[in-house]
Amino acid sequence: MDSRKHIYRTLRWRFCYKLTSQSVLLLIFLSHMVSGQIRYSIPEEMKKGSLIGNVALDLGIDMQRLRSGRARIVTGESIQYTELKTDKGTLVVNERIDREQLCGDVTPCSFSFDLILENPMELHPVKIMIQDQNDNPPQVLYPVQTGGSLVAEMVPRSADVGYLVTKVVAVDVDSGQNAWLSYKLQKATDRALFEVGLQNGEIRTIRQVTDKDAVKQRLTVIVEDNGQPSRSATVIVNVAVADSFPEVLSEFTDFTHDKEYNDNLTFYLVLALAVVSFLFITCLVVIISVKIYRWRQSRILYHSNLPVIPYYPPRYSDTLGTGTLQHVYNYEVCRTTDSRKSDCKFGRAGSQNVLIMDPSSTGTMQRIQNEKSILDEPDSPLELH
After folding, report:
1. What is the helix (H) or strand (E) element at residue 31, kind and residue range?
2. What distance in Å separates the CA atoms of residue 300 and residue 212, rounded to the nearest whole number?
3. What average pLDDT does the segment 228-256 reach?
């Protein structure tokens, strides 16, 4: 049994020794492969394409080596914030960097990547430090600005000097001095009654509350950060100076809606006036334009020297230049001039010939037909126009 334990311990020692030796060799290989490390510090919100640094100059790498080694950036992040320009050996911003999105509340904020060269293999760690910029205004957490509903702080009329009314709570997602906040009382119904703590945002009374003080009190507090340039946020605090809730309810029924209603009414009145004025002016311009256009057309036709082309109805045509007649012609022919009893009338409409003969007339049928043939000829002297 003892011999078996001895063999087991010997094998375990040899395995651990071999494993430790491989780790040491790996560390030695990595130490030879890692040639240099650089660090840059840049502000957040830099534009795409902005210069970060010249890695070829800072690492002492020749431009020919940078190109022949196929230099590239390897990072584990899903977004590659930087880009390597191998033709110039420079490192530029490839994506907008938002410190708050990248690191949140962690300070200092930074990210790292590796610059790799091949033939032979070289590894150069690069670390980018992100400087915070004052790009976010303060955010008010309390009192909550509810818009339509009313939230008011109660102050009894028996309150002494220094009575704590409420506290304005705000935060700034920026870091460092950009997140230092200060509170100031911008407007108040009675500035001699309340004050706001510069650093803590506490609203307190600065004198004894009396019966003459109005029930409705409105305070406007502005919150500013310490950045350059400074950013700010505004919060409205409603205060009710009363000893009972029914008194507050009767006084604050229309507290929040008066000003909003008046502002909305004024806006809609101005908008309606502007629309009506625009429509009136547009109609007036259109009417004047039409009148001027018609007057100009009439003047052009009056002074024009163009010949007037007459218009003839489709059922009429010019005949020998003397007038117009219908296409259907009627003819009346008399055989003799001394007797009405022997008169014959012929009518022609289009291409049809009609013979009408008085039964009491005398003469032969052959003579009548001869006269009919004479009438059908176009050059007949008996044809009347």
Report:
1. helix 2-33
2. 83
3. 79
